[in-house]
């Protein structure tokens, strides 16, 4: 029989695994939009790409916060 401490550790890891879905989808949608926009209007590539990199940094920060909280919360 598993004790409560062993179960709570597993729940943190499962919670982080579910929390990674949001940033993963966010990164995919950001770069899919840049590719789509570049295909439609190639001369606007530099403006779209710089904005996409800012969005990418924000989305990745959310993933890192989730990673830190998965191990910090007990």
From TrEMBL:
It comes from the Bacteria. The chain crosses the membrane at residues 13-35, 47-73. It is found in: Cell membrane; Membrane. GO terms for molecular function: lipid binding; proton-transporting ATP synthase activity, rotational mechanism. Keywords: ATP synthesis, Cell membrane, CF(0), Hydrogen ion transport, Ion transport, Lipid-binding, Membrane, Transmembrane, Transmembrane helix, Transport. CDD domains: ATP-synt_Fo_c. The record marks 60 as: Reversibly protonated during proton transport. One of its GO terms (cellular component) is plasma membrane. Residues 15-71 form the V-ATPase proteolipid subunit C-like domain. Belongs to the ATPase C chain family. F(1)F(0) ATP synthase produces ATP from ADP in the presence of a proton or sodium gradient. F-type ATPases consist of two structural domains, F(1) containing the extramembraneous catalytic core and F(0) containing the membrane proton channel, linked together by a central stalk and a peripheral stalk. During catalysis, ATP synthesis in the catalytic domain of F(1) is coupled via a rotary mechanism of the central stalk subunits to proton translocation. Key component of the F(0) channel; it plays a direct role in translocation across the membrane. A homomeric c-ring of between 10-14 subunits forms the central stalk rotor element with the F(1) delta and epsilon subunits. This is ATP synthase subunit c. It comes from Luteococcus japonicus.
């Amino acid at each position: 029989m598993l004790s409560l401490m062993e179960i709570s550790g597993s729940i943190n890891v499962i919670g982080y695994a579910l929390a990674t879905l949001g940033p993963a989808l966010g990164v995919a949608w950001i770069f899919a939009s840049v590719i789509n926009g570049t295909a439609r209007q190639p001369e606007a590539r530099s403006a779209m790409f710089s904005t996409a990199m800012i969005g990418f940094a924000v989305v990745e920060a959310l993933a890192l916060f989730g990673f830190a909280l998965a191990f910090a919360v007990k």
